[in-house]
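name: query_chain
kind: protein
chains: 1
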Amino acid sequence: MEDTLRSPEGIFVRPDDPDCAVLVLSGSSGRVEADRARMLASHGAAALSYRWFGDGDLPPGICEIPLESFTPYVDRLAELSDNLAIVGTSKGAEAALLLAAHDPRIRTVVAIAPTHVVWSNVGPGYDGETLPWRSSWTLDGKPLPFVPFDTTWTVPDEEPVVLEPGYTQSLRVAADQVPEATIPVERIRQPSSLTHPPAIAPSSPASPRSPAAAWPTAAPPKPTPPSASSPGPTSAPHSASGRNRRDPTLNHGLRRPCCQTGRFRL
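structure:
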């Protein structure tokens, strides 16, 4: 069964008798990972993906997003299976690791292009401003410690756009802030799968990028919202949406899972 979520936009795919339940989070594109959710469902997993920032209830950018805003979706998936997992890409991987570190129900994390620290915001907060830097996340109403982007680093005017030097420089400049900003992955119940493709912002007709948009030195341009994923009944446990900004792995897909039967076993 496949449902379309509205307000926020999303997709919820549920096979009969799912082996596990997976929350699928995109990166700073804010898109709905419909294809990935359907692929997971084809292997026996209930999968839900939605636009998790940018509507009236949450900041327009990834700026002080409450980790609690993901809880209604985890609750919903927990109704289907005790085997809970999160698949996240880039900023979604950052969120996935944080959620698993603070919610013992989550057994498995697949983090694609993850980070070991909390980074500063990508895009504006409630005030509509990107600067000064703030944490991407809050917990219990308090901002999580974070590493700010070093805006003295400039994106090279060349293709492909490589962002790794900017992150490395930011970590070096803010070295005193790294310990408190480090994500406590040791709290996650079981080992996670961490995938590290190159920190490159791809440029293609499907996902155009420019050096100016690849590094958050100023308020990013407003993107065109993604289209609805698929037809189906309306269902909305919470509210969020997204913008298209910095996501080095926008074109990276999740490979077929490694399992004996073709269905997931977590």
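note: Residues 91-102 form the longest helix (12 residues).
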